[in-house]
User: Fold this.
Amino acid sequence: MLSKFFCKPFMFILLLCAVFMNSVIVTYANAGEQVTETNTIEITVPFHIPPLDLREYDFNFFEIEQWFLDKINTERELYGVHPYAIYAPATVIAIEHSLDMRNNNFGRNAASDGRTHQQRHDRWMGVSRTKVTSSHSSSHWIEGELTPQRVHEIVDSILSNELTHYFIMNPTYYYIGIGFSIQSNGRGRLNLTMASLPNERASHRARTLEQRAEHRQSELERIRNERGWTYEY
Assistant:
């Protein structure tokens, strides 16, 4: 049930859901943020989560999500930036895309129906959203039961790529959604969906690629100074 899916103690959101009806109404707010019309989304189709591991192994999504989150945040702490907080709309997006990759046997950010990752985000966060959003998708073989060690190896693997590391460590992003599912042959499909603080999207889209890189570096230096970071990554 979606209501159970969102009733997670450590999620810093307020979420009210009507499920398996003609529509799903999702109202959410970040910690300390007032619920307003701008962060209320009406979804016209229900969202159902099937078994996430098609093999015989049990799959506790919340536990595995936390394994991914802990490892990614450990690396972000070492890098000198703030940790990610779980963000429910991003989580729904990430699970949906992970299942799409699993069911249609592919691994990329675009959906099987051709939608870009930004168009996928439109469905759950709204076309007029003010957060900057982005996505990472990858595939990983899982032999036997999924363990914290294997999750950590997956994160190490994706962060070993310089461009992916640069992307996931981006200080622009404060929120994350994690989707992971496994095909019957053991092929795991991972999607990470990231989001910034509110009211960042317009200025981000106005910057050139060069200006975005400069802004990222200045934000990284600012945040590291604020956090008193001294570790040489």
